[in-house]
């Protein structure tokens, strides 16, 4: 590339963070790492600091930060920081060109927003921040002139299949809809009874993608597709009617754009997040990513089906949240985060996840998302409501089912 890009990687120790650093390591002349940020994984952060020599390493709490500081060699120039403010700072410092937003969950919103306000090239993996604060985030991107490059593989595919820079041309003349592909997750062929007994490890065993545990459970419940549905509406300024979910079990087509003249453009590739990550890092140039070339003959077939919303109610819940608007999407996201945490901790069944989300959506008031404070308070209220309902559910474990 012509100029060296200075990158902050937020969530560097996670699945997307590690893949991002893998791509960066393949192009040492093109990128320098300004900051790495993570929650509490001190050992991996230490190894990443030694390899990439960032100016800053940000841990979320003071104790992880001091552990990291102790382990770094005395002569190391890496400055160790901690906390939300430091995170927002390394997302928005003047020296930074490009921010990989790869923290999981609502915790990523303030730093993602900080990068957007500062006009950075924002590589957005953290879909929850857009689901929660889509209005605020897209407004910040427009006001500051930030460039949002979607890293979620489906949205990255749509971005690649749209005719021109979608931010530069709202309205999308000629596009009739986008076809958002879904693998269907590990429970695609399971019955409700089987899902009722599903364990966290079964939910996290995705057939095609290797990902963090939260998004893996979301993929199993199809809430991931629900969140991506909302994400597509925000990023590409589409109405919900313009987004159709299509189950495609092979995960070779990452999504498609259908045009008024009948053309459908698709982006294909092996299911490896280094492809969309390399696209975002190099844009508008293409970079080698380490992903094996697609072998279509070995793939042999591509199948498609409609999603079954009675077996996977999360998709419907996300669609209803878009229709409701306001803070309903933040409420849906928060309830889902609590439900997934409870499922991973063995406190509720897999089939309780949509039950809990629906109840929280029914009982938490929706308001206009006018500021970050309003969105954060809706998020908190929904979490508190979800925790209260969970306590009830645990008292009398029910044969939860939305049907
Ligand atoms: P992960 O759980 O593997 O990693 C999460 C990262 O965020 C870790 O580095 C962790 O330390 C950090 N983190 C967690 N809480 C934090 C906090 N409070 N403050 C600071 N850092 C914190 O998750 P992942 O699979 O890499 O997913 C990251 C994001 O990317 C999610 O929003 C997910 O939906 C999205 N995404 C992931 C994939 C994938 O293939 N993994 C694909 C598309 C989108
Ligand atoms: Mg995706």
Automatic annotation (TrEMBL):
Enzyme class: oxidoreductase
GO molecular function terms attached to this record: 1-deoxy-D-xylulose-5-phosphate reductoisomerase activity; isomerase activity; manganese ion binding; NADPH binding
GO BP term, pick one: isopentenyl diphosphate biosynthetic process, methylerythritol 4-phosphate pathway involved in terpenoid biosynthetic process
Family affiliation: Belongs to the DXR family.
Residues reported in the UniProt entry to bind 1-deoxy-D-xylulose 5-phosphate: 127, 153-154, 183, 206, 219, 224-225, 228
Positions contributing to NADPH binding: 13-16, 40, 126, 128, 212
Annotated Pfam families: DXP_redisom_C, DXP_reductoisom, DXPR_C
This protein's pathway: Isoprenoid biosynthesis; isopentenyl diphosphate biosynthesis via DXP pathway; isopentenyl diphosphate from 1-deoxy-D-xylulose 5-phosphate: step 1/6
Cross-referenced Gene3D superfamilies: 1.10.1740.10, NAD(P)-binding Rossmann-like Domain (3.40.50.720)
Domain 1-deoxy-D-xylulose 5-phosphate reductoisomerase N-terminal: 7-134
PANTHER family found in the cross-reference section: 1-DEOXY-D-XYLULOSE 5-PHOSPHATE REDUCTOISOMERASE (PTHR30525), 1-DEOXY-D-XYLULOSE 5-PHOSPHATE REDUCTOISOMERASE, CHLOROPLASTIC (PTHR30525:SF0)
Chain segments annotated as transmembrane: none
Alphabetical keyword list: Isomerase, Isoprene biosynthesis, Magnesium, Manganese, Metal-binding, NADP, Oxidoreductase
HAMAP family: DXP_reductoisom
Catalytic activity: 2-C-methyl-D-erythritol 4-phosphate + NADP(+) = 1-deoxy-D-xylulose 5-phosphate + NADPH + H(+)
Taxonomic placement: Bacteria, Pseudomonadati, Pseudomonadota, Gammaproteobacteria, Cellvibrionales
EC number assigned by the record: 1.1.1.267
Role summary: Catalyzes the NADPH-dependent rearrangement and reduction of 1-deoxy-D-xylulose-5-phosphate (DXP) to 2-C-methyl-D-erythritol 4-phosphate (MEP).
Cofactor(s) it depends on: Mg(2+); Mn(2+)
InterPro entries found in the cross-reference section: DXP_reductoisomerase (IPR003821), DXP_reductoisomerase_C (IPR013644), DXP_reductoisomerase_N (IPR013512), DXPR_C (IPR026877), DXPR_C_sf (IPR036169), NAD(P)-bd_dom_sf (IPR036291)
Positions of the DXP reductoisomerase C-terminal domain: 268-384
Descriptive protein name: 1-deoxy-D-xylulose 5-phosphate reductoisomerase
Entry binding sites for Mn(2+): 152, 154, 228
1-deoxy-D-xylulose 5-phosphate reductoisomerase C-terminal domain: residues covered: 148-236
